[in-house]
Amino acid sequence: MRVLAFEDIYDMEAMFVSAGIDLSDVTFQQRWDSSDALEHIESFNPDVLLLDHFIPPFSGYEVLEELLESTVTRPNIIVAMSSEHSRNQAMVELGANYGTIKFNVTELGFWPVHSSS
């Protein structure tokens, strides 16, 4: 699984590790701003795209809007993960698969979890 996160404040990979998400078969990349977002999405070709709304210079909503209007391959799963519910809902209405408060993104059911031995 290839995961690309656009998040400017929190280290998303560390958040996944501390939540017990198994990243051994995940290629994870985080962009700390949304400059050249489409180019990064196209070159990385993620299965999962995580979009924070409040990220400079273009909001997650603007990135999603641009992505959906482009010829760039749409990731299988797009997650709106703002700290504000209404922003997530707006991105879901635009075309994101999920909208969740960013601190709950690790609770979505498609992440691989460490098996308990």
Describe this structure in words.
Strand 3, helix 3 (60-69) and strand 4 (77-80) form a beta-alpha-beta unit. The model has no long low-confidence stretch (mean pLDDT 93). Helix content is 30%, strand content 17%. Helix 3 (60-69) runs parallel beside helix 4 (85-94). It is of the alpha/beta class. The chain has a five-stranded parallel β-sheet. It is built from four helices and five strands, in the order E-H-E-H-E-H-E-H-E. The longest helix is centred in the middle third of the chain and has 10 residues, at 60-69.
Low-confidence stretches: none
Q: Largest beta sheet, briefly?
A: 5 strands, parallel
Reading side by side through the largest sheet, how are the strands ordered?
A: 2-1-3-4-5
Number of helices: 4
- Rg value: 13 Å
Q: Can you count the beta strands? A: 5
Order of helices and strands: EHEHEHEHE
| Residues in β-strands, percent | 15-25%
Spatial separation of the terminal alpha carbons: 23 Å
Q: What sort of overall outline do the alpha carbons produce when their principal axes are compared? A: globular
Q: Give the helix proportion (percent range).
A: 25-40%
Look at the structure and give the mean pLDDT. 93
Structural class: alpha/beta
